[in-house]
Every structure is written in structure tokens, then in C-alpha cells.
Structures
1.
Amino acid sequence: MGIGLCLLAGMSAVVPKASASDDATWAKRATPFNLSCPSRDQLIWSPDRQRSIELLCIKHGEGDPTYSLRLIDKNGGSSTLPLRDGAKELLWSPDSNAFFINGSESAYAGFFVIAYQITSGTPHEHVITVQAEKDMVDAFPPCKAANRDETACISEARDPQWNMSGVGWSSDSKSIFVFGEVPCSSSHGGIMCQVMGYRVDAANGTILKRLSARQVKAQWAGMMGWQMHVPDPPVYGTPYVPH
């Protein structure tokens, strides 16, 4: 089994790497963050070499360090932003005016992607996965899944928090390719590990195109940092009706 990948039979799960690596986890062309608190801060250059992102490490004695990012432009201007816990990798847009960050809260769930657009030298965060998450709930209703966790399916339907990861940018830098996945946990019953792909507007998350799991594998394999397996079809049971 390859480092950082959990390839379950018929499943597509990705397990984030536990330590620094030269290889990205989700977006093949992304740069992984060096979270070992190196003596020299890591620099991640934009494609046009006019900007860079500096990973800043702040040590706290014997405790775990904290990290932030500093955007530096060619004229020496800079802007600092916090780095979310669990952030793992960064991918610049082709036009160097935006970037996204992938990360995870655990080994199988809580995968997230955050997009930033740079305006007047300052990065602005954009939420881009809300529509995709709602669309996945419509495609794979949690309370209809066989062997589901009945106490969790209602809250999941309202606020799924399913795995969302960026795998690449469109050539015009206006949209992001997002890999959506129901976490590979038995609590999700017959819909565990189900996959959808979304091309979303990089500024507001509007869904521009939907892809099935097979289409994702066929069209996005070259952008993905792992070998995706197409999951088995979902299995549904009697819909749950709250009393």
C-alpha cells in the first residue's frame, strides 16, 4: 500500500500524510506544507514568480507550533493570514491571482478546501463548497441509506460536512475542480465512500458542472494525487421517518 493512501476495495478513500512529504495528497500539482518547523520558512512561488506564500512557524516551548501564511508581492508588500488547523497543501491558480488550500480534520473525514482571491495585494477567503455539499445530499440522501446511523442522518442532511477537496484549476483560473466524497465510515451505511465531482466558480462556489465517480476517474486522474477507485453503487433501505 502506498504511503498516505488507503485504497479499499471498490472505495476511493484518501488518508492524509502524517509527516512532511514531497508529494501532495489531493491535488497532484499542489505544494505540501512543511509542517516540521524548519529553520528557514518555506516559500511557495506563484507561477509568474511575482508573488510568494511564506509559511511561518511560531514555536511555543514544548507545545505544538502554530502556523500562518504571509503573502509577499514583487514590490515588497505583504499580508498575513492564519493557517487553519489540518491544512496540508496549497495550489496557485494559473494566473497567480488566487490559490486554494486543502486539508483535513482526521484521517477519513473533515476534508476541506479553502479558496483565496488576491485583490490589491490582499488575499480574501471564499467559501466554495456549500452548493456542492447540498447537491451531494440530494444525490445520496443520508436518511435513505441502508444500515445508516439513524441518530445522525437528519443532522447530516441539514449540514453534511462531507469531504471536499480541490484537485485543480481551470486554465482560465475562474473555476476549481472539487472532489466530493461521503466519508468512508460505516456510520454512513449504504452511501459510504460515494463520490461526485464538481467544477465550481472560484469566487462563489456556484456549480458549473457535475461529474459522476466514473467521469471523475476518467477526466481528472491526471490532476489527482492518489489512485482513485470507483466505489460500488449506493445501497438504500427504508427511509427514516422521525417520530
2.
Amino acid sequence: MNTDELRTVLHERAGLADPTGPAARVEAVHGRVQVVRRRRRQVVASAVGVVVVAAGASVVPTLWRPTPSPADQKAHVVLAGRPVPTAQTAAGFGYHYVEGVQSRPGAAKLQLTVPGGPAPKLVMWATSSTNPAPVVRLRSNIGPAIYRSAAGGFERYVLVNEKTRLTLIQRHAPARNRLALAVYDLDHAPPPGVSNGVVTFRQNILGDQLVSGLIGKPGQADLRTTIRAVHGPIRVSDLCYGAGDQDYLHVAFNGEDIGGAQCSSPPYFDPGVDGASFTAAQSPLPARGPIHVHVWLTGKNGSAASATSHAVIGFGLYRLSRATFTLAGQRVPVRQEYDGHEYVVMRRSESRPGDRQLIIHVPSSDVPRLVTFADSGYGSSNALTELLVGPNVRSAFEDGTSGGATVASGYVIQPGESPTLTLRARTKAPGHVVLGLAVSDQVH
């Protein structure tokens, strides 16, 4: 498999970021970026409501007034014999119930299509079966992920960021069994932080504090502000949407450009969770303030931006205070957020220096687990690190031209799965590179 094919795997199958995205690009410029952002799923605008496509499914109408909030709901909805939560919180954002579907008695499968839009939707599922505890599987048409859970009430959720067809399956279901899915919209009121009503730099992300945030108005392609000095490890989170796909965002501190990030057409509602992280020793911030921040938009290779009339740009600067552990020489947070869930590290393994691969077997569990993988850096370009689940390449990232170290999270092991993970170095000269794998349990 060549590099182009691996990039294709990354874009189509992995939950990681574009390896040519902002974090990797900063690393190529300075050789000091520690985190590669994960891929942000595309958001498809749509004004269509939830569409039930399963024959024999019934729609339970929403019970909210024109200005919805959890407090407005007059009664609890019951689906598949289970009370539906009126509200749910995921990664600091609130969601409220808007609609639900349930199957006819005896059905083993339920499908629905969730539309895309400018904000994600949250979907929960349940079954009426209670004894013995069955296993249900939620499949999506946009990727290979299969969400598994021991059935019961509405206990697990997934975030849907684009038009998606979901299929809920329960094998060997009892004769009168019902399946159910509940859909939630993002609350209108954002969490504390800096927001323009579409995107929000959260004030607190698992203890990381927003020091400064700036979001321009549509059409503003050049922003400037002044901040105080910030000491210690930091994360710089960029924001750019509504521009051309060949336009790039730049962030500079006192005139030093730390790299350009390719803009995305649709907005990503929670930009602060991604970004380029720096240790205190690697920080691009001057030691003393005031610090002049410049955020601007250009075309490829510094040319004029192709589309600015609807472009929205900005940045968020976070002071990192989460506890960390070392993986292949890199500092990784003990607690992480991924796709609206919180994970806490439970296991980590490292290869010996110079080994070309690291293999671990992960026993099954009743909770989802997030895989984090890292390399300590190859010291040369054209080096590729890939993660294999069983015999298949699931995701890959390519070191920047400086050969700097990289760390990323992006594969979730579902309950009941017990895969063998292989982290492999694809390079002619691995040198003294160290490979690392960590597995974190989902706690929310």
C-alpha cells in the first residue's frame, strides 16, 4: 500500500484528522507540534426532519413548544417501554429531545435517516428486552463503525454530524420485542465561552482553560488582538469556515506565523477540542507580553484568498492543565474527549527503540475504548506510522518534513470486541524510533 492509498484510508475510514491539516503543517514548519487533529466529519446542510425508512416503524411526535428546552416538555415520552430522557449532555454541550421512532412488536431491525445541518444531532437507542440482557448493534452508512451495547434503557449515544442512515439490529429478539431510537437537537444556548451562535470556543475543556478567543464576522479576513503572556503548555485552536477549499488560515504571535490551516466549507461547532499543542519549552508565545495576535486568510502559497465574502475566521488559545502521561516520549492527556464522549486512559504499551512494530491484544470489555497511538519521531521525511486492527489498516499519519514526533487518537473499540492492534513504522530507516499505544475507557 503506497502513501496515497494510506491517505485515502485515513480520509474515508479513520476518525483522525487530515494529516496535512493545521497540526501537521505547524510541525512541518517548526518541528514541535505534538498533536495531530482528528478528522472533522463533514456537515451537510438540510432542513428535512427525521425520516423513518423502516417498514412498520412508528413515529412518536415531539412534545415541545415553538421555543424548545428540556423544562418546556410537559410529559415524558416512552419508547419501547422505556422512558426517554428529555435532555442529554455531551462534551459540555446540551441537547434536547425532539423526535423518536420505535419498531413494531417482534422486529429485529429499525432504520432511520438523520438529516445533516449546521449543528450535530445526538441519537440514543434502546430495546424493550430485559432478560436475558441482549446485545444491540447500531450501524451507520457513512463508515465501518458498529456501535454495540448491552441493551436496556437509553444509555448510550452517538453524535451525527451529517446526513446518516442508522440501522439498529438485535439478533434473536423475543417475539414482542421493540427497538427504539431517540433524536436530540443541540440547545440554542451555547456553553460558557466565546461563541457566535454557530461555533463555540468552550471556556473549559476537561480542565483546559480558554485564555483568549476571537471570532470574526462573516467577510472579515484579517483579525488582530492583543493578549497577555501565557506560560506553560498551550493549545492553539484555529477556526475557519465559509471560505474556499484552497484558502488557508494563519495565526501569528508578534509577527511569527506558526503555520497555515486549510479552511473547511461547513463550520465545526466545537473548534476548541482540536488544535496544535505545545509544551512549555516548545511554546511559540513570547515570554513577555503584551503579545500581538494576527489571524488572517490567504490563498494557497500566500496568494490572495479565493473566497472571503462569507468566510468566518478566528482562534482560541487554551492553557493546558490536564494530567498527562508519557507515550513514545510525548505527553498525552489522561482524560480525552472524542466524538462527544470522555475517555480515561487505562493501559499503555511502548516498543523498544528501533522496533518496526508494536503489537498488543485488547481483551473485550463492556464499555467503548479509545485507541491513542504515537511515534517518537523518525528524524527524516517520508516516514509513515499506521495502525492496523487485525489485518486491516484503520488509520495512518505521516510525520512532517522535520520528522518530528506525532501522537493521535482516532479508533474506538466497541463493547464485546477484543482486537489485536498493530502499530507499524513504514520507513527504510526506523532509527531509534519508539512506537506507543494507549487504550482509554469511555466514562461518559
3.
Amino acid sequence: MKRPVGLAAYKIQVIAIIALFLQSCGIQGTPSPSKSCATNQAIVNVHDTYLERVCGCAEGRGTFIGNTLQCTVSLGTVVFFYYPDITFMHTILGSSGVNPWSFSPKDPTQANPATFVDSALLNVTGNHTFADQQTGNGGTFIVQ
């Protein structure tokens, strides 16, 4: 049966199209959690007890406990969430905006936390809130 070959070829084509689309949107790969951001990128590190605004936000670098992180970005920014040193599960959910987003739970007992990364395209102006279901830490992306 030759169908799996065709299906595999189709999957490769879809992946190539997605990669070209992301590149055309200005997404130049996944930035490192400790490096500076490219234009239209922002990085938030998720830790067990706090959030860290790394780069890409008008407000600059900082650490936040509770629902206090604010990050002002331009329309079309991609925000990357990293989980560099977590020891328990974290689940980030976008709770407002036209297209609320959610990420799968990040469980450090199942994989190396240094490999965890999530991203969300902020393509609608306004305030977009998010929170970690396990810790309650969160904040607001202000998209202009």
C-alpha cells in the first residue's frame, strides 16, 4: 500500500510551508532564553516562584511574583515562554483576547525543563492576560 509514502510526503510539504510562513512573518527561529530578542520577539522565563521578563518588552528586564508582569509590545510580536529551571509542573494559559491560547503542561519529571519552550503570536491590539495555572503568576501583554 503506497498511501503512507504519500502521507509522509504531504507532511513534509506542510512542514515546509509552515516554516516559510513563519520566516515571512519575521520569526527568525527560537531565541535563546538568555540572549537578546530580535525585532518583534519577547521572552518570558517561567520559574517555580516567579516570572522573568527577559527582553522584547518596552518595560525592560525584571522579575515578578503574582499577576503583575506587564509587557508592552508591537502588533505582530511573538512571545516565547521558557522554563529553564522548573521543578514542578507549569501550565500557561492566555485568558483574554480574541484568540485565547493555552500551552500543554510542562512537567519536569517527564523531560528536561531546559528543552521546554512555547510561543504565542500577538496579532490583535489590546490587553492580553495570561497566568500559570499552578502558581497563579501571570501578567498582561499590552499590544500596540
